[in-house]
Each structure stands twice: as structure tokens, then as C-alpha cells.
Amino acid sequence: MPSILRSLRDRILTKDPSDALFSAGVNAWKEYEETRESQYLAEAVRNHQAALNIRVSGHPRRSNSLFCTAMALWAQCLGALTKESSSTVIAYCDEALRLLLDKPDELGRRAIIYTNLGMVYFTLFRLGKEDPVAFPANIGKAIQNYRSALQLRPAKNDPDRPTSLINLSVALVQKGSKDDLSNAFINLREAVELCATRPTHHPLLLSALNNLAQAYHSRYDYSANVSDVVGKVEALRMILDLKDEGRGRLVPLVNLTNALRTLCDIQPASWSNDLREAVLHGREALKLSDGSDNIIHVKALIALANVLFARYVQISPKNVTDLDQAIKYYRQAIDRDSKNDPILCSRLASAIYNRCQGFEEVEWATLKDAISYNRQALHACPKDDPLYLKIQKDLGSIYLTRFKNSGAEGDLVMGIQAYQDVVSYCPDDNDDFTYYQGILKDAKRALQDKRKGRTGKNFTTRSRSSQSDSPLSPRSPTKRKSKLRRRRSGAASLRSKQSSDESCPSRPASIILTH
Q1: Which residues contact 494 (CB under 8 A, 6 or more apart)?
Q2: Backbone dihedral region of 476: left (phi > 0), alpha (psi from -120 to 50 degrees) or beta?
Q3: Is the torsion defined by CA of 22, 28, 31, 36 positive or negative?
Q4: What pLDDT is attached to residue 381?
Q5: Residues 388, 483: Cα–Cα separation, whole Å
Q6: CB atoms within 10 A of CB 323
Q7: Is 499:337 a contact under the CB 8 Å cutoff?
Q8: 401-405, long-range: CB within 8 Å, 24+ apart, which pairs?
Q9: What is the per-residue pLDDT for 9?
Q10: Left, alpha or beta for 55 (phi > 0: left; psi -120 to 50: alpha)?
Q11: Does residue 417 have a pLDDT over 60?
Q12: Which phi-psi region, left, alpha or beta, contains residue 112 (left: φ > 0; alpha: ψ -120 to 50)?
């Protein structure tokens, strides 16, 4: 008996002190995950770091402490990430992977570490877009680690395989090459297939479909192929079908409204049915948006305004109610958009111009209003942006139209000034360069005639068989028309996150497991 007691005593006396610290770190992390209170996160970091300091090289549980300390540190420094703090996290993860390399029974933990290391590099990649000096390009390393995690989860029935497929695909889409996009499609389709048969994977199915829609959008930038827009619409419809009634449908409704609008722009045969569907979705989205989230509310306003405007322009007979509602929603969006976005202001100017041309000026929609909003757009748009010249062209067209209506010389002068800017900046190999020169020449001749008393307001602008020169025209006096039109014609393709017409970039489906 005495020998047994001595053995027990020796075990107690020699118990590894790092175990208690590690356990305290695990408990603190659990509290943090439940409450999101920083005091628990600080406690988790402190205890895990203390345990790691004890578990020096050669300690059998050093890999556990490396990983847990790394993830707690990562959560703590996300609010104020630095190159030094991220380097520490990466170093801990890399060492943990080296220690587990020859342990076949630790494949699952290795996959988790690769996943979270990929998440770290992906986050650095996103930060690098804003500060490339502090955070150099890391997308290649994110892909490498996500791919390593996927390779450790080869079984179709592995519950974490869909997560790895989605993570890797998100990074591949961000890298954006043609081959990367092709691989992303393969992975995302497999993820959709795996998740569709598992009720517990419903959130992952939504994530896979969201990222599939984004992949179609990205590939369209390369291909300009209508099939990619069709694919995006189908993915978004599937997302909407999976959403229950309520505000959870709001973002999918806005995204689908915008995608249908894009489809109508490039596939006229679908105008009637697709625009009808888009308007229905847009109205439902705006009804669900109570304005508490200003960003999504502005998106919903712009999406509905754009499809109503498009329906007015593209479908006969013309319904002035569509146009009036579009003007109303554009104005509401501008009132909420503190950035005074030039595309949004230009859109409203175009809608008002069409209202005045097709019907008559009313108190809340005059050519003076159209000019005012176009001038706001010009003021907010950089001069080296191709949109700047299009706004100038639109402004010139409005002034020349007002001159035809009123005969006021000042309108003619302002129209000439606008078209002089268009001609001076328009590349001479542009398809419309000669056309714009012709308009300017006719306007100058009309000004000479007016000053000589030869004519009143009988000025006729030139016409093109291919397209009218109204401000609604998407034609831009630049050489980069095709790609610009795809980007600008999206329902709310504005520069800021607040007015982007695409769904918010999907975050990687990385999972930091409990310690």
C-alpha cells in the first residue's frame, strides 16, 4: 500500500503545469465564443501563451498549444492587425503542421490547421488590396493551404469536405484567372451536390450557391457569354427557394433583381418575362427593407429603380408610372447616399430626361433637374474615368434638347462646351468619334446662324440608325466600351459597398474548431 501511495504522490507532484493552463485557455475560449466579450478572449490568449511557454520543443502536446494560441491571437488582433501579429500566428501554425506531419492519426487536425492558415492568408490578401505595402499579395498561399486541407478530406462523406471545397473556390475566384475559375466551378458544383443531400448542411448549401453565383459573375467579365449570366440567375433563384419568408430573403431578392436586369441588357428576347420577374422581386425586396440597414436599403432602391427604368425603355407601350417610380426611387437612394455617386446621379438625370422627352416636364422632373443631377455626377466623377465623358455627352444632349425647345442661346453654348470636351478627350479611333464631331459641328453652325439672325431654334441633331443619342444610351465615348458596359449596366454597379449591385463578397467558410 505505501508504494502505491508514493506512486500516486509522485504523479501528483510531477503533474505538467501546462495542462491546467491549457484547460483554462480552452474554457475561456468557449466563454468568448458564447459571449464575444473581449475579457474572455484576453484570458484565452494569456493562458494558452503561458501553456505554450512551458511546452517547449519536444513536448508531446506542443502542437496543440501552438494551434490554439495561434487562433486565440488571431481573433484578438483582427481589430488591429499588423504584419508582426499575423507573422506570429503564421509561425505558430507552420510549426504545428511540421510537428504533426508524420502522425497519420492527426490528419483531421492538420486539415483544420491548413484551413485556418488559409483563412489567415486570405484575410491578409483582402487587407493587401487597401495596403499592399503592409500586406503583400497572399492569395497564392491562401489557395495552397486551402488545397492542402481539401486533399486531407478526400472522402465524399467527410462532413468537412464541402467547407474545404467552398474555401478553396472563394480564393480561386479572387485570384480570377480563367483556369482558376474553371477549377472553382468544379469544386462549387461538387459542394452543392454534397450539401443538397444533407439537411444539416443547409447553411453550407447557401454558401456554395452564393459563391457559385459570384463565380459566374467573375467569368462573365472574361467571356461576355450570356450563359454565365443565365447560370448566375439560376443559382440565385435556387438560393431564394431555400430562404424562408421574412428579411432573410432581402439580399437574395436584390441580387436576383440585379442579375435579371443584366440578363435583359444582353438578351433582348427575355425582356418581357425577365423584367416582369425582376420588378416583382425588386418590389418584394423594398417591402422587406425597413431602412434600418442603410446600405442594403440603398441597394434595394437602386435595384428596383433600374428595372423599372429598363422596363419603361425596353417594353412598349410605354408606362409612365414605371418611369415616375424609377425617378422616385433614384431620388430616395441619392438622399441616403452621402457619397453622391456619379453613376447614380447620372441614372436619375437620364430618367428625368426621358420623362421630359416622352411626356412633359412636371414640377418634380424638369430638364433643369436633369442638368443639375448630371452636373453633380460630373463633379463626383474623376476626369480619367470613362464615365466622365459619357456624362458630358449626356449633359450636352440635354442642353441641345432644351435649346430646341426654348431657342435660348445659353443652352446652345453650354451644349457646345460639353461636346467640345467629349471630342477633345474621345480617342480618334473610337467608333463614334466622327459622330460626335458631327454633332459639335452642327451645334456651332446653329450658333453662328442664330447670332446672325438666320434661325430661331430649328436645330436638328444627327441620328444614328444603330442607337439614339439620348442620355439613356449606354454608349460611352471611350475605346473600352464592352467591358465598361458590362460593369456599368449592372443594376446598381456603383463604386462604394453601399451601392454595389453584386452580393457582398462571400467570406471563406473557414471553421475555427473549439480547442
Answers
A1: 302, 341, 343, 344, 500, 501
A2: beta
A3: negative
A4: 92
A5: 16
A6: 22
A7: yes
A8: 401/353, 401/356, 401/357, 401/367, 402/367, 402/371, 403/446, 403/457, 403/459, 404/457, 404/459, 404/460, 404/461, 405/367, 405/457
A9: 45
A10: beta
A11: yes
A12: alpha
CA distance 227 to 348: 30
How many domains is the chain built from? Answer: 1
> Which set of grid coordinates corresponds to residue 240?
431564394
Residue 334 to residue 482: CA distance in whole angstroms: 27
Q: From the CB of residue 123, how many other CB atoms can be counted at a distance below 10 Å?
A: 20
Cell of 156: 465524399
Q: Is residue 7 part of a domain?
A: no
269: amino acid identity, one letter: A
What are the cell numbers at 387?
A: 464615365
| Three cell numbers, residue 195 | 450539401
For residue 12, the SS3 value is helix
Q: In angstroms, rounded to a whole number, what is the distance separating the alpha carbons of residues 466 and 256?
A: 30
Buried b (16+ CB within 10 A) or exposed e, 128-165: beeeeeebeebbebbbbbbbbbbebbeeeebebbbbbb
List the beta bridge partners of residue 365: 362
Does 430 map to a domain? Answer: yes
Give the single-character DSSP code of 105: G
3-state helix, strand, coil in the chain (%, to 5): 75, 0, 25
- In this predicted structure, the answer to whether residue 135 has a pLDDT above a threshold of 70 is yes
The set of cell numbers assigned to 361 is: 416636364
* DSSP string over 19-73: HHHHHHHHHHHHHHHHH--HHHHHHHHHHHHHHHHHS-TT-TTHHHHHHHHHHHH
Answer yes or no: is 163 within a domain. no
Nearest Cα to Cα of residue 332 among 39, 108, 36, 324:
324
Using CA atoms, how far apart are residues 425 and 388, in angstroms rounded to an integer?
Answer: 10
Whether 174 is covered by a domain: the verdict is no
Put simply, whether the predicted model's pTM sits higher than 0.90 gets the answer: no
CA atoms within 13 A on the CB side of 112: 19
Nearest-angstrom CA–CA distance, 376 and 400: 19
Residue with cell 471545397: 165
| Count of C-beta atoms within a 10 Å radius of residue 31 | 16
Q: The CATH number of the domain where 419 resides is what?
A: 1.25.40.10
Distance spanning both ends of the chain, measured CA to CA:
38
43-96, pLDDT tens digit by residue? 999 999 999 999 999 999 999 999 999 999 999 988 788 888 899 999 999 999
User: Rounded CA gap, 175 and 453, in Å?
Assistant: 63
Helices (H), 381-469: 386-406, 409-425, 433-451
Backbone angles phi, psi at 335, to 5 degrees: -60, -30
pLDDT category, 461, cuts 50, 70, 90?
Answer: low
Residue 437 in this model has a pLDDT that exceeds 80: yes
Full domain range(s) for residue 381: 365-451
Choose between 346 and 135: higher pLDDT.
346
